[in-house]
């Protein structure tokens, strides 16, 4: 029988007050994990915390951290790690603003690398010791299908996501001997606030109706619809489970078949 139980496992889920991150936190809790929510908005964290399943006597909590400052995240994570053992780390942060790469300012790249690559690295360094000690761990990065096929109009995002994918693949080589896996989940066009912002931005720049932009995007998706955050969460939960112990160093798209690359 497939083992998806996360009972007695401790999970950290970043960016978990809305969208994909929130859905992942809910799914992991339903599988029995003790979930620690991470985001910068404490009031929003409290709201999501109250929604998490506790039917298996799980103990959930939250951590306030601002991912625009990797040193702040490093401090908060190290402080948390002194009192808590972590089995599952889900790195998830909102993507950089849309725009052509030729128009991007240097500061835009710096900010994106701060909130994605550097914060991911700080979190891994904080929580890896407990994973090694337990000889069990799951590190899952929510990135983008752009690591397989760059997306037009998302220049800074494409560059940043590729850096995270390279970092994750390298990390997967180094930690596998400790029973730790590192994998990337690549959401396609998913019904989130970010997708709404991208559509609205395209509509404003092209003077087209929002419905026209949506139709153009849907025409590229064989499934004929946008994804739901819960569908991304389902794959993430599987990769976090004991059943996925031999899946390591992979980047898996959840995009309705849109990505053309293998």
Order of helices and strands: EHEHEHEHEHEHHHE
User: What's the story with the biggest beta sheet?
Assistant: 7 strands, parallel
Please tally the β strands and state the result.
7
CATH class value of the largest domain: Alpha Beta
Query: In percent terms, what proportion of residues is strand?
Result: 5-15%
Tell me the CATH topology of the largest domain. Answer: Rossmann fold
Radius of gyration: 18 Å
Shape: globular
CATH architecture verdict of the largest domain: 3-Layer(aba) Sandwich
Strand order of the largest sheet: 3-2-1-4-5-6-7
Task: Note the total helix count.
Answer: 8
Terminus-to-terminus distance: 30 Å
What is the total number of structural domains?
Answer: 2
Brief account:
By secondary structure, this protein is of the alpha/beta class. 46% of the residues lie in helices and 14% in strands. The protein folds into 2 domains: 10-190 and 228-254, NAD(P)-binding Rossmann-like Domain (Rossmann fold, 3-Layer(aba) Sandwich); 192-226, no CATH class.
Q: Could you explain the architecture of this structure?
A:
The protein has 262 residues and is an alpha/beta fold. The chain folds into 2 domains: 10-190 and 228-254, 3-Layer(aba) Sandwich (Rossmann fold); 192-226, no CATH class. The protein is built from 8 helices and 7 strands; from the N terminus they run E-H-E-H-E-H-E-H-E-H-E-H-H-H-E. A 7-stranded parallel β-sheet has the order 3-2-1-4-5-6-7, with helices on both faces. It is globular and about 55 Å long. The mean pLDDT is 96.
Key terms:
262 residues, 2 domains, seven-stranded parallel beta sheet, globular
């Amino acid at each position: 029988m497939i083992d998806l139980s996360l009972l007695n496992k401790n999970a950290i889920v970043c960016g978990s007050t809305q969208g994909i991150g929130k859905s992942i936190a809910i799914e992991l809790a339903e599988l029995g994990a003790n979930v620690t929510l991470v985001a910068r908005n404490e009031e929003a964290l409290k709201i999501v915390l109250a929604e998490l399943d506790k039917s298996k006597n799980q103990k959930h909590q939250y951590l306030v951290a601002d991912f625009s400052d990797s040193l702040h995240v490093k401090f908060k994570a190290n402080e948390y790690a002194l009192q808590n053992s972590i089995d599952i780390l889900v790195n998830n942060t909102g993507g950089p603003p849309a725009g052509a790469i030729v128009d991007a300012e240097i500061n835009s790249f710096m900010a994106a690398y701060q909130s994605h690559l550097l914060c991911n690295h700080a979190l891994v360094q904080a929580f890896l010791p407990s994973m090694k000690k337990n000889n069990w761990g799951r590190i899952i990065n929510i990135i983008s299908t752009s690591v397989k096929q760059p997306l037009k109009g998302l220049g800074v995002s494409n560059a940043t996501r590729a850096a995270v994918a390279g970092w994750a693949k390298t990390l997967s080589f180094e930690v596998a001997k400790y029973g730790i896996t590192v994998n990337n989940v690549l959401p396609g066009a998913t019904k989130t606030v970010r997708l709404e912002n991208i559509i609205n931005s395209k509509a404003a720049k092209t003077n087209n109706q929002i419905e026209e932009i949506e139709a153009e995007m849907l025409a590229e998706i064989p499934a004929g619809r946008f994804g739901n955050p819960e569908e991304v969460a389902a794959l993430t939960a599987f990769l976090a489970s004991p059943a996925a112990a031999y899946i390591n160093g992979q980047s898996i798209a959840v995009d309705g078949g849109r990505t053309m690359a293998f």
